[in-house]
Amino acid sequence: MIAYELMILYRLMPKPELRTALKRTSETIFQKGGIIRKLENLGTRDLPFKISVHGVVYNKADYFLFEFNAPPSSIASLFDEYIRDVDVVRRRLYKKTEPVGFECTLDNEMKPPPYRNDVLNLIEQAKSQQGKPKFEYNTNLDHYPFQK
Amino acid sequence: MSLILRRLTARFQTGNLIVRTCSTDKDAPEFDMENPFEKEKLQCVLCKHKIEADYKNVKLLSQFQSPYTGRIYGKHITGLCTKQQELVEKEIVKAQSAGLMGTYVKDPHFFEDPELFNADKPIRPHRF
After folding, report:
1. Which residue in A61, A90, A104 is closest to B81 by CB distance?
2. Taking the domain B45-110, which CATH number applies?
3. Which of A21, A85, A97, B6 is most exposed, with minimal Cβ within 10 Å?
4. Residue A120, in any domain of the structure
5. What number is the ipTM of this complex?
């Protein structure tokens, strides 16, 4: 199972209602055969832009973050289920990303063009002539039979 | 005749005798050492401090956003390496989509944040 992050925004509700809404979202994950690893409350915040869902415009929301493992086949239905929940303002599912190891190439990028790797690659590509189709008449003749 | 022979033999003898060796010369420079004057490698801000852009870290991401238009600055302004710039842009789009970050405005709470770069002095000239 793959680790996912669910960023879910609820409309402002009193605590007991919010609790039931949270339970609903977590139970849908369990129903699809998932395991919740972490539930984080990111607080009540002003939305950076107004969001209109279910015929209502929202300017504030309760931010929650779920981290869970679930089979990838269930993700589409999960995503669909949450938007049908009237309390949910917005939901986004992201795969949990592992840090990728790479080396900083800024030093090379700051060099003058003929020393940069990306420019050198371009020059090499042009030299090799790869991917440059040459037109052929397919006449099995070594010359062009008609007047040009 | 004998004089010429004597001279030739003398020359051969001296030719054999002159042997120059550098092994005894302690002050001779070692040429297989690394260049001591090589400059330190340039690194971008995020690579230097080993920071990974994350869509939940809005405070960091909004530093790469214009306070006037809310647009993401290009790498000729931010001074990030290609890979980091790509990652930052990806995470900003994710944050905007999740409703954490504005698309047209920068959060006014982050206006006082320290500047990582000067937008008026890009590393390479603007294309417009």
Report:
1. A104
2. 4.10.640.10
3. B6
4. no
5. 0.82
